[in-house]
Write a structure and sequence with these properties.
By secondary structure, this protein is mainly α. The protein contains ten helices and two strands, in the order H-E-E-H-H-H-H-H-H-H-H-H. It has a two-stranded antiparallel sheet with strand order 1-2. Helix 7 runs antiparallel to helix 8. The chain is globular, with a radius of gyration of 21 Å.
Length: 283
């Protein structure tokens, strides 16, 4: 898997392929920054990339983003606890759980259990790893490996941090469908991890999809997967509604951070190549 394709390689592979194919989504140039803050970030990253290389800077940005996201998890946990105590936002949880319990039946419980396992600690890493390898080999680039690994690791870090910080109890076991789970409830790890992995895979696919219909289908499938995994957690009584809503909020924030890091990488790679066209630095 090379980041510097030679003349015998497909020009749509490796770093050259990234510059050619990954810079636009639906006609929007991802290396164009419209806001002053975005422009400043792009210029700063480009200067650092001239020394360290764009791909090294991408990894550094993702590491910084993970630290920021962990801090966001702490802030969200504190805000959630205060709001729940002050305004009773968690009063939504009991009615929704009761409504879900009324929909249960043996076959639907079994189906939901099998489905929710896809987003679990075993199923989701397997799905992510398979897709990551396919994209990396097909594109002859380490970028899918870096982005999917960082996205998954960051979401796992946020899940662990949130559970340890808040320590919220799950719904009573009498209201849940076995097999039972005993770790703290907030945030829902299945919901957070599924949203992040589905989101970053959808983003990587969108980069090379030229049909508007295909792009819409990709977004819809990813959104439905993340949504239904979250709903399954409440349906089975393994999480409260607000555990899932909080997970979606945190997952969306982290996904935006990972995509922004990739946009900065593309911008730095493009500008570095313009400064030294004979050597596209791959990190």
């Amino acid at each position: 898997m090379s980041n510097r394709p030679d003349d015998s390689e497909d020009p749509d592979k490796g770093t050259e392929g990234e510059l050619r194919e990954d810079r636009q989504v639906g006609g929007r140039d991802l290396t164009h920054w419209e806001t002053p803050v975005g422009g400043w970030l792009a210029r700063t990253v480009q200067r650092i990339s001239l020394v360290l290389g764009p791909r090294t800077v991408l990894i550094i940005i993702l590491a910084i983003g993970a630290a920021v996201s962990a801090t966001l998890t702490w802030v969200t946990s504190e805000l959630y606890e205060n709001i729940a105590q002050a305004n009773g936002i968690a009063l939504l949880d009991q009615p929704v759980l009761r409504a879900m319990m009324n929909l249960r039946s043996p076959w639907l419980d079994s189906l939901a259990t099998d489905y929710t396992n896809i987003g679990g600690a075993v199923g989701m890493p397997i799905v992510a790893a398979v897709i990551m390898v396919i994209l990396a080999v097909h594109r002859r680039s380490w970028t899918p490996v870096i982005l999917i690994t960082a996205a998954g690791a960051g979401s796992l870090l946020m899940t662990i941090a949130g559970k340890q910080l808040l320590g919220r109890a799950r719904p009573p076991l009498v209201d849940a469908v076995p097999p039972y789970e005993y770790s703290p409830a907030f945030p829902s790890g299945h919901s957070l991890n599924s949203l992040v992995i589905a989101g970053i895979v959808a983003y990587l696919l969108l980069l090379r999809q030229h049909s508007r219909r295909t792009r819409i289908l990709t977004v819809v499938v990813a959104a439905l997967f993340a949504f239904t995994i979250g709903v399954s957690r409440v349906f089975l009584g393994h999480h409260w509604l607000t555990d899932v809503l909080g997970a979606w909020l945190l997952g969306t924030a982290w996904l935006v951070a990972v995509i922004t890091a990739h946009r900065l990488y593309l911008t730095a790679t493009k500008r570095t190549a313009a400064v030294a066209p004979e050597e596209i630095e791959g990190g």
